[in-house]
Amino acid sequence: MDTSKVTEIKTSFTEQITDVADEKQLNDVRVTFLGKKGHVNGLMKEMKNLSPEDKPVWGNEVNALRNYILETIESIGTKLNEEKLNRQLAEETLDVTLPGRTVSVGSPHPLSRIVEEIEDFFIGLGYEVAEGYEVETDYYNFELLNLPKSHPARDMQDSFYINDELLLRTHTSPVQARVMKSKDGKGPVKIICPGKVYRRDSDDATHSHQFTQIEGLVVDKNVRMSDLKGTLESFAKEVFGDAHDIRLRPSYFPFTEPSVEVDISCFKCNGDGCNICKGSGWIEILGAGMVHPNVLEMCGFDSNEYSGFAFGMGPDRIAMLKYGIEDIRHFYTNDLRFISQFKQTEDGGHVDASL
Fold this sequence. Notes:
Number of helices: 11
Helix content: 25-40%
Oligomer: single chain
């Protein structure tokens, strides 16, 4: 039995493994010596030509060679992996002393800011925030608010009808009606109702087919017009500042009686008259009035025992007045140049929103 072939293969392996520099070369050496057609398997095939006495000796020699090759390849593979990891760590090292990337911080949308400011004020007065459906029934949107199907005042609100009984709500008053109905004729009710409303208006600088509205409702025993006026005076001073006064002008709404329009003294001229207030010194901000007895009765309240007041305002218009915005369409165009201006208006100052 000639074992010189085992020695030759071991010497050849030692020479080749010395030149290995990466995982690919290491795998090529492994296949050459340990693969199916490799040198070690070739030595095992020669066992069939040996005598029974020589076979165990030959097997031990070949297995020793195989183990040597396997251990050497595993050791070099571990070394190559460590070197690769060290190179990767060196390339990806972070300099923790470098300044971080500046993160651009956004700001609340002016409408969101106004709505939250109004909500916070009325919550402080004990009101609850009530929300409802944007798709409403004609019954809740009109009929329960003293607007039967033949009522001419329906023409005041050109509506988006889905079918004869469903429409996109034209105001948030249906939320008030639903809350009153849920009370089974027992007060008190003290809510504000913010939300989107829809009317078939042509979009221009001061009108939109979709806009935001906040309505308020108080129903209890012995509620008077003076309570309404005091509430609205406090609201105007909270939103626009202590220097501003309000006035109430007689008006008409089907769901309130008496009804009033509420004006605030002009923030630009302080009542002296200018182009903003059209020389009057006053700017209309909302409508209000005492809840009509018919509405109370239809919603389950005894109008001889209960009374109430209601008001409705457009946060879009209030934001335009407060921030000096000249075009309502800026609120809905998602122009970051417009939105970014409000980062500096936390104190309620005006911005140049003319774009």
